[in-house]
Amino acid sequence: LRLAGAAGLAAAAGCGETAGETLSSELRPPAPFTVPLPVPPVAVPVRPGRYELAQRAARVEIIPGTTTEIWGFGGTFPGPTLRLRRGERAVVRVRNELPVPTSTHLHGGVVPPESDGYPTDLVAPAGHRPPAAPGGHHGADGTAVTWHDGAKDYVYPVRQRAATLWYHDHRMDFTGPQVWRGLAGFALIGDVEEDELPLPAGERDVPLMICDRAFAADGSFRYPALDPALRETPGVRGDFMEGVQGDVILVNGAPWPVLEVAAARYRLRLLNASNARRYRLALTGGARFVQIGSDLGLLGAPAVRDTITLAPAERADVVVDFSGHRPGAVVTMVNRFGAGPTRDVMRFQVTRRVRDDSAVPARLPALEPAVPGDAAARRRFDFRRTGQGGAAAWTINGRRFRPGEPLARPRLGTAEVWRLVSDFHHPVHVHLARLRVLARGGRAPGPADAGWKDTVDVRPYEVVDVLARFEGYRGRYMMHCHNLEHEDMAMMADFEVV
Ligand code: C2O
Ligand code: CU
Fold first, then answer.
1. Mean pLDDT over all residues of the chain?
2. Residue nearest to atom 1 of ligand 1 (CA)
3. Of residues 230 and 256, which shows the higher confidence score?
């Protein structure tokens, strides 16, 4: 996909719903639906409320018959699932045993600014000397870097409702390659309100981290900025300005896996953890999704959905009922935006009958209404490519990321209406805030925009109005495009809650 200005962008948008360029794998991937679905381990606290996650390299078998070096929290990809409870503060000590600095962000978390994973708040490998400047695009402007030697304690007060969150690296200019290598995991918040619902639970509550990767002939991950010498060249992404996509779809780190299921209801927490790929998920064999939640927790009522579209970082909490299927039946989850190998995602193989007491209640706990009249301010943010050729850049309101220079100063405890305007596919993520889509293209939002969100899928030449509520903490946060290559190419801005 080579783009030639606005006309090319519009054409691309119309046809493909793609948001990047696809790297091909150099080795032969396995036949789909032959590798069992792994479920990430649940993080075990070292003592109540205290977790330790070491970021380290490990060799794992992703493609059967070969090994891949990953960088993972706890040495796994996905990292261990943090099971957090509303009202129970958690402290996560992240120890960096990698060769590069990191910053860890709890995506969707209402977290104090010093624990939010600011891109220049770096945890360095023990003994590394801080650079004079963070490097990358921003090396020249003397941005201050905070430097933690070897480890940092991230404090998560967990005062928010039950939701499917995730955590991932957020290092300035290198989030794309570092997440691509595996630095991501789930953080599931539970609460009493959710416990009281008869939703499928236990081993029938399955988080599914969906992402794409490409593999080199030796089994390593291919990524445009990861050359064999691990030379780090920020901003150099070759022709991958639109974003990096792979041709192998992984779920929980396994290629096109298969999960054996009972003929019963399952709760599936779908996360698009891809750098740039968008998915339109659907089920074969007449199965449908009953969506019960989105990014920041349950919807007010379940919604039957034939397809679920997820831009990078978006989540959908769904229940799928396999009880109409007899043992031996299969249901495949496909990606209607994909072609060839990226059309398949994973398969459910029904193997047994089981007693099922779960249910999806017709009503879920009421959602607070989103009232635009409450807005204390209205602002407009324009996500756009500027410049040509080597000078091309992804910008917000004409600016590349300038750490420490906020574009907005919302007041704590207020709501604002933010108008998001874009020239391409930009999944817009706002830290700290809770978002509700008020209008998309001048119309009332559809089911894809339901519920409280932290990431909003803004498509080419769309105008999306969101209500943003700022609660919890004062301080410096950021908003950015969650296409990780766009983010690394500085499509990010600070805002400061005052
Ligand atoms: Cu999931 Cu600022 O990111
Ligand atoms: Cu973008």
1. 91
2. 107
3. 256
Domain map (residue ranges) of the chain: 39-194, 202-353, 372-497
pLDDT tens digit string along 308-344? 999 999 999 999 999 999 999 999 999 999 999 999 9
DSSP code of residue 176? H
Residue range 39-194 forms a domain whose CATH class is mainly beta
| Nearest ligand 1 atom, CA 166 | 1
Are 202-353 and 372-497 the same fold in CATH? yes
* Residue in the block written with tokens 């409702």: 161
Q: Classify the C-alpha dihedral 67-71-73-74 as positive or negative.
A: positive
Ligand nearest to the CA of 479: 1
Residue 175 CA, ligand 2 centroid: distance in Å: 14
440 lines ligand 1 (CB under 6 A): no
Quote the pLDDT of residue 463: 98
202-353: CATH topology: Immunoglobulin-like (2.60.40)
- 425: CA distance to ligand 2 center in Å? 6
Spatial CB neighbours of 370, under 8 Å, sequence gap ≥ 6: 436, 438, 467
**What are the pLDDT digits (tens) for 416-450?**
999 999 999 999 999 999 999 999 999 999 999 99
The reply to whether ligand 1 has any atom less than 6 angstroms from the CB of 486 is: no
Instruction: For residue 477, give the ligand nearest its CA.
Output: 1
Q: How far is the CA of 264 from the centre of ligand 2 (A)?
A: 39
- Pairing between strand 146-149 and 121-124? parallel
Mapped onto helix, strand or coil, the DSSP state of residue 174 is coil
Q: Whose CA is nearest to atom 3 of ligand 1?
A: 107
CA–CA distance, 239 with 255 (Å, rounded to integer): 26
CATH code for the domain defined by 372-497: 2.60.40.420
Mean pLDDT of 353-380: 94
pTM: 0.94
| Tokens 């309100």 -> residue | 193
pLDDT tens string 168-197: 999 999 999 999 999 999 999 999 999 999
